[in-house]
Amino acid sequence: MAEHKEKGTPGQASIYQAEVLSQLCYVFVRPVLGQLHQGLDRRLVQTLLDLLQVIVMHRHRQHGLVLSELGGC
After folding, report:
1. Domain locations along the chain
2. Neighbours of 45 (CB within 10 A)
3. pTM for the full model?
4. pLDDT value at position 43?
5. What's the rounded Cα separation, in Å, for the pair 51 and 43?
6. Which of 4, 20, 30, 56 has the fewest C-beta atoms lying within 10 Å of its C-beta?
């Protein structure tokens, strides 16, 4: 069990980077989220924010996320 404990290694930096990315994404789309919140349920607005964050996290050169991949399953 001791090998599964988190250590003070570079993994902690990625947690910090994830928090920064999440905050930047929220600040960028906050005006749109505010307008949507007036007409939609807050759960739908939160789902949209989560979707945007997932798209940004999984967007990279080797596995570029294409719009056709969003609905294709």
Report:
1. 14-56
2. 19
3. 0.60
4. 93
5. 12
6. 4
